[in-house]
């Protein structure tokens, strides 16, 4: 009799535990670990490009922006309890300095240092103003440096340019960079 009571209590205890485990949704997962093809970024219902800066909204100085993504059907995210989640994407932080404006200032008023004043380099602007753009040689160099985006705003931000504009991304290498040998080398 005591054995059957113990067995019955163990059975009731096991059923209680198994029923409590079923409250978790088996389709709830951490959406930050989804693979490509299991989500779409950005969410198609949200407009995420800021028209003033032509970069994702909320771009920080660390060149990251959070956007809303949508998981595939049947996947529920733990973070939001639905099929949307936030993901960091790379962006270019801008502070309002236009690429076209700085290039035009460099071409037409570069001998007076207007481009350097605009970009936040007042000492170089005064030097160019007092020497007539280093006798136009400094103006020519600045046109090339601004056109190739080597010289940017003094605060470390990027130029405002069209989203699919002529932006340049510098790829650097060092002693730890591995280049895959090609068959035609």
From TrEMBL:
UniProt KW GTP-binding keyword: no
Identification of the protein by name: TM2 domain-containing protein CG10795
Subcellular location(s) of the protein: Membrane
Lineage start: Eukaryota, Metazoa, Ecdysozoa, Arthropoda, Hexapoda
Family to which this protein belongs: Belongs to the TM2 family.
Chief place of localization: membrane
InterPro entries with a match to the protein in the record: TM2, TM2D1-3-like
Signal peptide segment: 1-20
UniProt KW keywords: Glycoprotein, Membrane, Signal, Transmembrane, Transmembrane helix
Protein topology in the membrane: Multi-pass membrane protein
Keyword Endoplasmic reticulum appears in the UniProt entry: no
Ranges of residues in domain TM2: 96-144
Underlying gene: LOC107267250
GO cellular component: membrane
UniProt xrefs under Pfam families: TM2
